[in-house]
Amino acid sequence: MSYRPSVFSKGRVVFDTFANRPSYAEAGLVHVVSDGPVNFMHDGSEWRPLVGPSQRPHYQPPAAANWTEVGTTSGTIADEYGTLLVTSTNENALFTYNTAVGSTHTATVAFQSQWVKQGGGFEPVFALAHYESGTGKFTRFGWYIDSSGNFTMQVQRFTNRTTASTVVTSSTDNYRMNQTGHNWLRIRQDSTNVYYEFTLDGYRWITYYSEAKAAFVTATNIGLFSSNVNAATFRTQVVGFKLT
Fold first, then answer.
1. Is residue 104 a contact partner of residue 190, using CB atoms and an 8 Å limit?
2. Cα of 40 vs its chain's centroid, Å
């Protein structure tokens, strides 16, 4: 049975399981999920996950069926209570979104990773990828943790899923990473350049690096990249994704 208090912020609250989420539209309606990790708010047209310390509404990621695995890996992508669970074990895993990007586009991801110090190598990694389907090349933008437990933000080029090419820029900045909560990454392309951006709060975006839009790839798709050099499974919960 659902419990519905009278008022919450701009609307009402529904407390129920994810499977019993109401189908009717009401802007401001909040669904507190009793059996899942993420709550949702309705914006009048769709349910949007509430993520981060400010519980900012984000866009529910497309279901796992809308993503295609590149190559054969030990990675998986699966639906989980309105989010995506991305895993990788001892290998690079890359999943591309089936909707092609336009000549100008913005892709945003909100996620929380199971960051664990892995001795003996630079990983695990979670990143957004700018992917070129005709060649298999891509540029990834995201985080990895080194064997000392330091978080490093990096833009790196790959000639294919398993072969790294060039580290374009890299910096160890633990302060930029929320190690226990949600993080946001964004790849934005205008008519001239590609911008690799992040935010600490889901609102104020910071450009980490930019380059000419065809510097390495002519992007056709956005990808989710996950990797771990050790046998342990590395898990990331993607709680928000939007491509415009």
1. yes
2. 17
Residues 108-143 pLDDT 10s: 999 988 765 555 554 678 999 999 999 999 999 998
For residues 141 and 189, give the distance between their C-alpha atoms in angstroms, rounded to a whole number. Answer: 14
> Where are the CATH 2.60.120.200 domain residues in the chain?
64-243
CA 126, chain centre distance (Å): 8
Both tokens of 231, joined, read 């046998």
pLDDT tens digits, one per residue of 201-216: 777 888 999 999 999 9
DSSP string, 137-178: -EEEEEEEE-TTS-EEEEEEEEEETTEEEEEEEEEE-GGG--
Of the pLDDT bands very low, low, confident and very high (cuts 50, 70, 90), residue 2 is very low
* pLDDT (average), residues 87-111: 93
Q: Considering only CA atoms, which of 176, 242, 175 is closest in space to residue 208?
A: 176
- Specify the DSSP element, H or E, that contains 201: none
Tokens of 27: 């802007």
Class of the 64-243 domain?
A: mainly beta
Beta bridge partners of 171: 153
Rg (CA), the chain: 18
Please provide residue 17's backbone torsions phi and psi, each rounded to the nearest 5 degrees.
-70, 165
Locus of tokens 């790839």: 217
pLDDT digits 0-9 by tens, 152-203: 899 999 999 999 999 999 888 765 666 666 789 999 999 999 999 998 777 7
Whole-model pTM above 0.90?
no
- At 88, list the tokens: 């990788």
User: Which of these, 167, 149, 148, lies nearest to 157 by C-alpha position?
Assistant: 167
